[in-house]
Amino acid sequence: MRPRLVVAFATLMALAACMNDFDRFDSTSGDSTTTTTGPGGGGGSTSSSTATTTSSGGGTAVGGGGSGGSGGSPVEPETECHDGDDNDDDGLTDCRDPDCAGPSCAEVCDDGVDNDGNGDVDCDDMLCAFSSACEEDCTNDQDDDGDGLTDCEDFGCYDSGDCDESCFNPNADDNGNGLSGCADFHCFEFGGCPEFCTNNQDDDGDGMTDCEDYRCWDHPACEEDCTDGVDDNDNGTIDCQDFSCMEADACRP
């Protein structure tokens, strides 16, 4: 072997030995650092934290650990139903809150208090519509059911014997409801107010008198001669202009 090759080979072997020694030194030295960061686990908000561990050889390893998130506070139902506060922060206070539905918030129909908090007191509350406390007494001059109508003015007294009206006495308000004779709604039933077609009075209170009233169309006193040019039945219309002549042959087109 030539001297130059021998020297070169020896130099390479020496370098290889030095590299092996360097690797062994680096694997145990404290200058090597590894960092790992992981997201924190948890049910609420998360944050990352770093844990550091030092080996006996001087090396340092850094690892990530997650911190647990805090969960939301559970919403408690409204339990104080008469303190004026919205305890569960749902925008509804006391008996207006469905959580308070129950006997403590039921409407009492005769105590002058809005027990259920809906703005209506006693008989004005629809929950009292069928309460015995809200029935109309038709003879005590009071608005018992709170509908603005008193005694016989109230439709709740329609069938009451205390509110009978003498329908043929146009000048007497027998039941005190402000309406007299056939103008009273109590006289509308069962044809209680027929029109008498020859007495020059509005017997049924509809604003039409005698033959002007459609109820008298078939009355003999209200027959119209549809061709004589005379208002025979005195209803203000003549011949074919009279509604009683609508079907007369002389008035057909």
From TrEMBL:
Residues 26-88 are annotated as: Disordered. Keywords: Signal. Residues 27-37, 46-55 have a biased composition (Low complexity). This is Uncharacterized protein. PROSITE patterns: EF_HAND_1, PROKAR_LIPOPROTEIN. Residues 56-72 have a biased composition (Gly residues). InterPro entries: EF_Hand_1_Ca_BS. It comes from Chondromyces apiculatus DSM 436.
